Amino acid sequence: MSENHPASSAAEGDLSPEGDLSHYARYQALKFRRHPHGVLELIMGAKDASGKLSTADHRMHRELADVWRDIDTDAQTRAVVIRGEGKGFSGGGDLGLVQEMADDFDVRARVWREARDLVYNVINCGKPVVSAMHGAAVGAGLVAGLLADISIATPDARIIDGHTRLGVAAGDHAAIVWPLLCGMAKAKYYLLLCETVSGAEAERIGLVSLCVEEEQLLPRAFEIATRLATGSQTAIRWTKYALNNWLRQAGPTFDTSLALEFMGFAGPDVREGVKSLREKRPPAFDTDAPF
Prior knowledge:
- GO terms for molecular function: catalytic activity.
- The chain is an alpha/beta fold.
- 49% of the residues lie in helices and 13% in strands.
């Protein structure tokens, strides 16, 4: 674990001697550890020793979409803790991938399907998921972070849905879950303006389940995951399934938002969004809209 990440004896030691990780052998952008009582730790790893956040490139995006199906069929796993390693929970989308999506229809179509699968696969995964968010929480990782059954953030975590800053509609998970968690007024404020939500504010408005100090983030996440893993599995999984019907009912809203987001990737604003991010300046979007 990076020295930039809050320490946790639960994350570093006391790993379960039972079971291997061959179920996840194909994954390269994600890392896994098994813990006692059937708790699986899913780590979105930093790219280098500096702790720089991994961005959601081709591989990371695809693996984050696929992994929930494998977790669902993993007989050794009863609960999951998802966290980031390094200076934050998750980085934003890889600008190179965004540029490819703007330029290439085939890439855009493939990533659209992965983005759709990521949301629905998290929702339909039968195992309870606990997210532990610190630092920046952006991009594809944030999808899993906020769709987790129990979401935990540190007070200074920075939750950012960056779509409108990039010049595309807020697709991904935003339309399906933000209004349900924090209400339409707050959802519109943060999503339309691309405002950062601190972990403390996210708990206050109901966007996350809990806010805890950084040194307690992983211990609390593993404590909750262990309680979920040692409880009645039928009762917990069936309760999750029933509650997630609220999200399934919002499926058409999500599908519309995702379609509009990916239509935006073919438009001019995303090119200005990418260019302005690379040049570290405010974007100068065209003020005229085609509708």
